[in-house]
Each structure stands twice: as structure tokens, then as C-alpha cells.
Specification:
The structure is a homodimer of 195-residue chains. With 195 residues, the first copy, chain A, is an alpha+beta fold. Chain A contains four helices and eight strands. The first copy, chain A, has helices spanning 6-15, 66-72, 105-117, 120-124; strands at 24-30, 36-42, 56-61, 75-82, 87-98, 155-169, 176-182, 188-193. The longest helix of chain A has 13 residues, at 105-117. The two termini of chain A are 28 Å apart. The relative contact order of chain A is 0.19.
Chain lengths: 195, 195
């Protein structure tokens, strides 16, 4: 069942579709030291699954620093600002990592499908030298693209299962703001609030 | 003295100046419950001060939820993605709030100057009903703009004093990434790393 925030979010995605960067958002996590970390990631669509139908897909590398953050604190917040329509969705939720050892067959299939749908250049990044290490020789980045049918072991699907959405529309007088809260596994409350 | 990351950041700001949204970035903090919060804020320039010359200016409202976050954990991370040049600056640093009771004369003056430089509509937002409360009547938002020479008590200048910058350039083969770290009060190290 679609959550009530899915319609305004789909509308924003549609109305901003001319801008490729409208599919990027900022994902904040908390490090084991209790400091926040914040980076841009790409929205890979919603999980095609009845139970988890409101779940956002992201991808990550098992060598990325955010893996430790997620193990320490799975709750995270996405900030998704749409530049054309001037609206923001803050999406708080639980992150769930789907790795090469995932035993749930549906999730493992979703990982494989997501890998298959990537571009060659996106897949190649998972074969690059270890991120954040002193820079390697240029030749180390010059690789044949990996097999689209065989995800590299370090490729992870990252799921964000939303619990609270704060939608702010800067256009309009006054601005509009609405908070959606997951009350239980299925029920969302909707509250219009002051911006 | 300008930090070594100031030049690439100034260049990014300049090259993206045709896009008003290039002055927006996402600020992540940690709530007292240890969860991260992430929202879009506007870059208000650098602090015009010899000692704090690499300090970024933001504004906030003393009624905003992020005030409690900052008291709990002043370390925060900004993610600043430039859509035109396709580059990202992750700026980790310490937040410092400058309120109406600030006793440092230079900082209090910076607060007043920042208020003065806002638009009428930006200043009016500080006179709006309490944020995140059930939505008030439209008339409560229809106000005379506040005096540009007299900041409202709830208007705060928010400073971000950077400690670590992670600069990623997606353009180019391969991508370029450089990490700048504050080693002591004055010295920055620069390290090219794998993207």
C-alpha cells in the first residue's frame, strides 16, 4: 500500500525530471564516534516488493565508511531538495544493507537487478582501488567494465525504510509544510504544520 | 590566512553562480537521541574576521529543533553539491551559535550585519508562528517586515568552523578527490585520495 507521502514525492520527481541532479539526495548517518557524516547519493527507485513498497533504494560499496555508521546506528536521514519546484523532503528511516551474503532471496534478487540496471561506468567504480586511500596510479582506474550479470562482492544494495517524512514547499505564500509519521507497520498520520 | 580548500571552493561557487540553488547546502547534526537530522540551509558567506576567516555563516531561528542538536553535539557535517560542475564538498566542523545574548562584540556585530543583509521576506520568517506546530491561520503569516536595523530576539547567526573537508569532483577520468585536515589551529594538510 502506498504511503500518503508517495504522491507528493512522485509529483516532485516528475516535475523535476528535466534535471538529472533531481535524483541525487544527501544521506546523513552517525559515525561510531557519534559525529554525523553527510554525502550525496543517487536514488535508485523504490523497492518492487509488496511488503516494503515504500522503501527507497540506494547503492553503496562494502569498503565505504558508511557501512560502519549503519552497523552502529541504522537510523538515518535523507534530505532531498528539488531545485526546480523548490521543495524539500526530509526522510528519516532505517537503513538496511543487502550484501553478497544476503539470504533473503527477494532481496538478493533486488541486489542483482539493481546491479544489472547500472551503467558500465557506475559498475566499474566497484572495481576501483580502495576509496579514501592515498591516490593510486591512473592505470588502476582504467578497467574493463564488470559483468552486468555478476555483481562484484563489494557491491551492496542499501535500503531506506522511511518512518517520518517532513515535506516543505518554499513556493507559495505562506510556505507549506506537512509531516507524515509512521504510527505502526501500516498506518501513517499526516499533520500540516507551520513552516 | 585562507585555508587551502578555500580556492577550490571559491572556484566552485563562482562557476555555479548562475544557479541560485548553488548557495544552498545540507547541514546534518545529531539529535540528543543520537539520531541524525539533515536539512537544507543557505550559505551566507564567510565570516569577515581575521581569526575566523575560514568560518561559514548560516542563519537559524532559536525556536528551531537544531538548537538542541548543537548543544548536545556541536560537530556537524555540511554536504555541498554543485550541480553544474558536478563536485561535492563535505565540510565537517564545529557549530557555534551567536544569539541575541552574545557578549563578543565582533560576533554580535556580525549577527546584526547578517540580519541587515537579509531580504524582507527572509526577515519576516522570524516573526512567523512557532515552526513545526499545527498550522496557524494564514493571517498569522501576513506581517509587516521587521526592522532591518533591529534583529528579532530569536534570530541567530550560526557559524561553522571547518576541521575537515572532503572534495570530490565527479567530472574527469578518473574522478578526483582530495581531503583537507586541520592539524592545529593554523595548519591544514592536503591529501589526494582515491574517489
Amino acid at each position: 500500500m502506498l504511503a500518503p507521502w508517495r504522491s507528493p514525492l512522485s509529483s516532485a520527481i516528475h516535475r523535476n525530471r528535466s534535471k538529472p541532479h533531481s535524483r541525487y539526495f544527501q544521506l546523513a548517518t552517525v559515525t561510531p564516534e557519534g559525529i554525523t557524516a553527510n554525502r550525496t547519493v543517487v536514488f535508485r527507485g523504490f523497492l518492487d516488493d509488496e511488503k516494503y513498497s515504500n522503501t527507497l533504494k540506494i547503492i553503496t560499496d562494502s569498503r565505504s565508511a558508511k557501512i560502519q555508521d549503519i552497523e552502529h546506528q541504522p537510523l538515518a536521514e535523507v534530505c532531498w531538495y528539488f531545485t526546480k519546484t523548490r521543495e524539500q523532503f526530509r526522510i528519516r528511516g532505517k537503513l538496511q544493507l543487502v550484501t553478497n551474503t544476503e539470504t533473503n532471496a527477494d532481496l538478493q534478487q533486488a541486489r542483482k537487478t539493481t546491479w544489472y540496471n547500472l551503467s558500465d561506468s557506475s559498475r566499474s567504480q566497484f572495481a576501483w582501488p580502495d576509496p579514501a586511500q592515498p591516490v593510486a596510479d591512473k592505470s588502476a582506474f582504467d578497467l574493463e567494465p564488470p559483468d552486468p550479470n555478476l555483481p562484484l562482492d563489494n557491491f551492496c544494495l542499501l535500503l531506506l525504510i522511511p518512518q517520518k517524512i517532513d515535506h516543505l514547499q518554499l513556493k507559495g505564500e505562506p510556505q507549506q509544510r506537512c509531516i507524515y509519521t509512521l504510527e505502526d507497520d501500516l498506518t501513517w498520520s499526516t499533520q500540516a504544520v507551520n513552516p
